[in-house]
């Protein structure tokens, strides 16, 4: 997980929160998470905006301890 791996921006926060994310999403599973900046931004966005989210599961590709530290 080097800083250069995700230099290119590939996800931008939308201007408005989709209604389905805001009010309907209860479970979210993210697979092959590497801890890149864009992935972290997406996770933070979901956690901030999914009002009914009960469970988020993040399955890491590798180095789970480093990723866990980034998320805490």
Notes on the protein architecture:
There is one protein chain. By secondary structure, the protein is α+β, with helices and mostly antiparallel strands. The protein has one domain. 36% of the residues lie in helices and 18% in strands. The protein has helices at residues 19-23, 37-49, 64-71; strands spanning 27-33, 55-60. A two-stranded parallel ribbon has the order 1-2. The longest helix is centred in the middle third of the chain and has 13 residues, at 37-49. The model has no long low-confidence stretch (mean pLDDT 79).
Comma- or semicolon-separated keywords:
72 residues, alpha+beta, 3 helices
Topology:
Layout: H1 19-23, E1 27-33, H2 37-49, E2 55-60, H3 64-71
Parallel strand pairs: 1-2
Protein name: Putative FBD domain-containing protein
Domain FBD: 13-58
Pfam families: FBD (PF08387)
In short:
The chain is α+β, with helices and mostly antiparallel strands and 72 residues long. It has helices at 19-23, 37-49, 64-71; strands at residues 27-33, 55-60.
Instruction: State the helical fraction.
Output: 25-40%
| Unreliable stretches covering 5 or more consecutive residues | none
The total number of structural domains is: 1
Largest sheet: 2 strands, parallel
Q: What distance separates the N and C termini?
A: 17 Å
Strand order of the largest sheet: 1-2
Domain FBD: 13-58
InterPro entries: FBD
Protein name: Putative FBD domain-containing protein
Pfam family, one: FBD
